[in-house]
Amino acid sequence: MLSSDMDISIVIVNWRTRDSLRECLRSVQSQDGVPPIQIIVVDNASEDGSTEMVATEFPQVQLICNPQNRGFAAACNQGIRLAEGRFILLLNPDTVVPPQTLAKLLAFAKTRPDSAVIGCRVVNPDGSLERTCFRYPSLLNVLLSAFYLNKLFPRNRFFGREFMTWWERDSIRDVDVVTGSCMLVRREAIEQIGLIDERYFIYAEEADWCYRFAQAGWKITFTPTAKIVHLSSQSTSQCWTKMYVWQRKSILLYLEKWHGASVWHLANTVFLVSSLPRIGFWLVARCLGTMGERAERQSAALLAALRFHFTGVVPE
Asked: What is the mean pLDDT, run by run of 10 residues, along the chain of 316 residues?
């Protein structure tokens, strides 16, 4: 990271989301009330014309073209190393940033000098709330989500603890983790604890980073005073089975890193056992031809996950 008087650098990691990325960049460039913004796009070997679009339509954007998909964490680090701002905003390419959002985020961050990470309200295109921010991965949280107890009792503070499902994201509060689709990170804090752990290809990397910030004495804070619109999973939906397995692998990596091998084995067993009845259900639905494409997708993902839990192999 370089030194300058710039307030904010935006790092966007892209993989095959050309049209969404275009709208994201347009929304960023139309922001009101902020000084010049450094924008860095790191492209993970897209084959949809994303890099050509950025080079042609947004020549002022700094573009990194990876010859292969390095994953989200590694690509973020590439952008962060080039960032000149006092704050670095990690932003998904499938987001739209309403006017004055960046000004509001920066203004809030400057009132919270003890916060390493700031998150904001995230909504879906229809205006409904996306429940960003969550608690650190744990064996208990894996157990509750693996058996859908968090969905059966979403308003219960115990069963809904991982994603704080009772909270409408309508108040300022310190949280464990700000979701990586939009996280404003203080440069000073990054220089203290280091970059994102690149062992996480995708998922849980923000949980790991936020935990490291907290261990160093920093706060992780959410504010509803700013918001973005998130189209959700524009990249990951293109390889859903692989991403389904990577999500489990990343959670297990986090648990092993911070809680040891025994917790890893217990969590792996919970994932495995909880998958068995679901595999049976979706395979029957697939054989009967009911639920169409959804049955195909769910059964393929669960079978790939089962293979991973036994062998450690992630689908290509």
From this structure: 74 96 96 90 96 97 97 97 97 96 96 98 95 96 94 92 95 97 97 98 97 98 97 69 95 98 98 94 89 90 94 90
Structure tokens at 72: 């989200």
Pick the CATH number of 8-133+169-230 from 3.90.550.10, 3.90.1150.10, 3.90.190.20, 3.30.70.1350: 3.90.550.10
Domain residue spans in the chain?
A: 8-133+169-230, 236-311
Contacts of 1 (CB under 8 A, 6+ apart): 80, 81, 82, 83, 84, 187, 190, 191
Q: Which amino acid is at 206?
A: E
Alpha helices in the chain, H assignment, sequence order: 18-29, 50-57, 72-82, 101-110, 139-146, 149-152, 187-193, 205-215, 240-259, 261-288, 292-311
The model carries a pTM of: 0.94
